[in-house]
Amino acid sequence: MSALLVLDGAYIRGNDRLEFRRVPPPTRAELDALLATITRRVGRHLQRRGWLTRDAERSHLNLDREETVLDSLLGHSITYRIALGPRAGQKAFTLRSLPGTPLPQPAKPFLASADGFSLHAGVAAGADERKKVERLCR
After folding, report:
1. How far apart are CA 34 and CA 31, in angstroms?
2. Cα distance between residue 137 and residue 131, in whole Å
């Protein structure tokens, strides 16, 4: 897990000095759009480095080791695909129960998550709150 701390405003040049101007907190739609951009860029970066392989249906990480027969069988089982025989690679027929009624989730207006990434914009610390800033950085 890694974190990135950003300013909740912008520096504007004016009258021979920089002035900090606060911006309003991001909306849920802005957080979702930003998270989609981040996940897309991280995926492209991993793909360029050769660490991620994408096909029509899914993505998977490339491991720097020889694949064993067990790895292949495990990979097929995780993706619900037939591993051996004339139907190898095809999706297996699976029976699933209907999902239960989801429990209501509390509204988290400053949190967006998707594809294993999360973006949290609900914590702020003022410039004079040094201990809080240090705690956030740690």
Report:
1. 5
2. 10
